[in-house]
Write a sequence for this structure.
């Protein structure tokens, strides 16, 4: 029992310290410091955002125009190829033999034509002697000459067919583009107009297709109508886009097609932008058919607007508001109409604020209307394209 007495004494000492009176907490620390900025005034472009997909203007399914066995495939799968490049070679020997036969047939009929002409001329000379040859014989020689000439023309046409067939043994690319893999390899039979050899897609330029709603299209069409008197170069509607691994919309194309009807099921219409996509050196083009991208489509002409960092805009029962610090350093609650969020994190404020006003841009949840604060002016903060904090310019 006695061994617990020191422990109990120590416990009573700590208890007495905890019950000692504490110094009063100072409640009057002065006005709350708050960061304030004036709204940024600059040109903005209202835009709609969509998901787009790349597609090729030209897509070719390469099939042989003659039947034969594949002898050569002198291309690398997946590479950029030029128009006219040799891709497949079909066994030429049977077609070369048929061509040689056709050449011989032409020579044969040329000889027959010469003979028939000579026979006809001799018959006509004989006919100068009355009763030496009948009219029926003369007609026969004339018909033989015409028949041999017709046969010669037919043999020449057959020769051209065999020349084409021999040429078709060399399968070349009809377009510039990117080639797929081999669908038929060396030694296999390729059937005329049936066997799929490979596919080719053109890549420069390339298209972006995206579906947009009726309201956006109407806005766009009205822009075009009001721009009829402007130069044609200024009437091109730009389209901005970014890839899956990119921030923002760093690339640009031009709208070049609007489909001729809306989809009644979805209420949308398909639009298309054209984008330059030239490969860099020996490398492939960056954009490939089937890839997806984020599309930013401007819906109005540039206009002057006031902007705030988005975190300075609060929401109260579905309505947007900001806090303004007046000349007496008191907080004023102000309803605003918020517009589109820009790429740098600033939001357009359509009405409710004026240029030069001091707006609280940080910690709006710490203040309340009518409160006296200590404003600390800073430049309007923005979020850069990679998420870093910067000051608006």
């Amino acid at each position: 029992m006695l061994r617990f007495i020191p422990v109990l004494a120590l416990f009573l000492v700590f208890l007495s310290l905890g019950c000692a009176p504490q110094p009063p907490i100072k409640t009057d620390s002065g006005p709350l410091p708050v960061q304030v900025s004036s709204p940024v005034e600059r040109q903005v472009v209202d835009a709609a955002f969509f998901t787009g997909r790349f597609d090729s203007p030209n897509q070719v399914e390469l099939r042989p125009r003659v039947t034969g066995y594949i002898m050569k495939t002198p291309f690398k799968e997946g590479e950029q190829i030029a128009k006219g490049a040799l891709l497949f070679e079909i066994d030429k020997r049977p077609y070369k033999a048929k061509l040689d036969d056709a050449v011989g047939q032409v020579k044969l009929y040329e000889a027959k034509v010469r003979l028939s002409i000579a026979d006809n001329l001799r018959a006509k000379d004989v006919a100068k002697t009355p009763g030496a040859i009948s009219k029926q014989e003369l007609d026969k020689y004339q018909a033989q000459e015409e028949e041999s000439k017709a046969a010669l023309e037919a043999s020449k046409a057959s020769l051209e067919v065999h020349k084409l067939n021999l040429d078709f043994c060399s399968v070349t690319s009809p377009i510039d583009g990117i080639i797929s893999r081999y669908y038929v390899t060396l030694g296999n039979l390729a059937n005329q107009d049936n066997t799929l050899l490979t596919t080719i897609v053109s890549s420069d330029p390339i298209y972006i297709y995206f579906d947009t709603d009726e309201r956006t299209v109407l806005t766009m069409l009205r822009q075009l109508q009001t721009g009829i008197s402007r130069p044609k170069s200024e009437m091109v509607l730009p389209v901005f886009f970014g890839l899956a691994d990119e921030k923002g919309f760093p690339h640009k194309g031009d709208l070049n097609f609007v489909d001729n009807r809306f989809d009644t099921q979805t209420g949308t219409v398909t639009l298309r932008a054209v984008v330059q996509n030239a490969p860099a050196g020996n490398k492939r083009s960056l954009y490939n058919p089937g890839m997806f991208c984020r599309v930013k489509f401007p819906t109005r002409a540039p206009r002057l607007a006031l902007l705030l960092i988005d975190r300075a805009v609060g929401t109260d029962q579905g309505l947007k508001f900001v806090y303004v610090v007046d000349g007496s350093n008191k907080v004023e609650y102000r309803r605003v109409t918020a517009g589109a969020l820009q790429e740098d994190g600033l939001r357009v404020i359509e009405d409710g604020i004026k240029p030069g006003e001091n707006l609280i841009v940080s910690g709006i949840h710490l203040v309340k209307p009518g409160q006296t604060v200590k404003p600390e002016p800073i430049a309007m903060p923005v979020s850069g394209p990679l998420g870093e904090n910067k000051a608006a310019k």
Observations:
- DSSP finds four helices and 25 strands in the chain.
- The two ends are 78 Å apart (CA to CA).
- The CA atoms of residues 11 and 22 lie 20 Å apart.
- Confidence is low (pLDDT under 50) at residues 20-27, 385-389.
